[in-house]
Design goal:
The complex is a heterodimer of chains A (113) and B (189).
Chain A: E1 4-5, E2 9-15, E3 18-25, H1 34-46, E4 51-61, H2 63-79, E5 83-87, H3 92-101, E6 108-112
Chain B: E1 3-7, E2 23-27, H1 38-52, H2 58-78, E3 87-94, E4 97-106, H3 108-123, H4 126-140, H5 148-155, E5 159-166, E6 173-182, H6 183-188
Antiparallel strand pairs in B: 1-5, 2-3, 3-4, 4-6, 5-6
The chains are: A alpha/beta (113), B alpha+beta (189).
């Protein structure tokens, strides 16, 4: 699994059921996130355990990114897979924006750190 | 000239041209080069950092303001009718409130979408609209999130206004979008 390392952000996959997003993600459209999140999609589809997305070091995510994450959540709902999304209390938008996406699927657990 | 207003502009809130901003910028984001998109983030971070000196917890205020300003700018840039036309942004701190306003020129197609969203917002809460928009965007594989303004209203509880002014030229509109936060709200967020 190759980590994606761009100037403003990194996408790491420490194991087959975890993705860590760091930095600033402000890509121009929801589909611009597809290459970055392809491995997450595969992980959600194939993992037998809950898939974890850690955004505790993601300082900024635009609304296109929120939409891209929401699509992952809808995929999890469709496949009936659980997702843990780990957020930081120190980054004000995370709990609010991600928290309200929880309504998309009961299998989403929000972990605040 | 026809005019449509939503939110705080209903209360005769001044537009950029009617106030003296602390900081303002007119810039062009030609999207032929995707690298230019990063200018939105660059400007957002600069404006947020500039304003943060009024606050004790500067880092936290930057995280909030930059997110809000970036959504305003991305909207203004995406929905400008001519990618080589100026987008304007102005920031004002006055009477313990922070105001940020963007101005862009737009066309009938984009303004119709914006008016449609405004009409829905008059009767439906942003929470319901945002979930509806996400499901719609996912099912149709839309390449626009349509969430920018809605997330500002829902996640940031922003005092937001939109003013659309029809220009004398055919198919040309001026769109003002403004967000106002009290200092207290920014500290408590």
């Amino acid at each position: 699994m190759m980590p994606v390392d761009e100037e403003e952000y990194t996408v790491e996959h420490p194991d087959q059921k975890t993705t860590i997003l760091k930095g600033t993600l402000r890509l121009p459209s929801p589909t611009a996130y597809d290459p970055l999140l392809e491995e997450v999609k595969q992980g959600v589809e194939t993992s037998s355990e809950a898939y974890t997305i850690d955004i505790t070091e993601l300082k900024f995510l635009n609304s296109s990114g929120l939409t891209a994450l929401a699509r992952i959540f809808l995929l999890a709902r469709q496949k009936e897979k659980d997702i843990n999304i780990v957020c930081s209390n120190d980054i004000p938008w995370q709990g609010k924006s991600i928290g309200s996406l929880q309504k998309l699927w009961t299998g989403i657990s929000l972990v605040m750190k | 000239m026809q005019e449509e207003v939503f939110g705080i502009y209903d209360n005769k809130s001044n537009t950029k041209t009617e106030m003296t901003p602390d900081l303002s910028l007119d810039f062009v984001v030609p999207l032929e080069l995707i690298e230019n998109w990063k200018k939105c983030s660059l400007v957002s971070n600069f404006f947020a950092n500039y304003q943060s000196f009024n606050f004790m917890d500067q880092e936290r205020v930057v995280l909030i303001l930059s997110t809000v300003i970036n959504e305003l700018l991305e909207n203004a840039v995406k929905f400008t009718s001519d990618k080589n036309k100026l987008v304007s942004i102005a920031l004002k701190h006055f009477d313990s409130t922070v105001s940020v306003e963007t101005v862009n020129l737009s066309n009938t197609e984009n303004v119709t979408k914006l008016k449609d969203m405004i009409h829905k917002l008059r009767t439906t809460d942003p929470e319901s609209l945002i979930l509806e928009q996400i499901v719609k965007a996912a099912n149709t594989n839309l390449n626009e999130s349509g969430l920018g303004i809605l997330s500002l209203l829902r996640d940031f509880k922003a005092n937001l206004g939109i003013k659309i002014i029809e220009k004398p030229d055919p198919d040309l509109y001026e769109v003002f979008t403004k967000v106002v936060f009290t200092d207290e709200a920014l500290k408590m967020y």
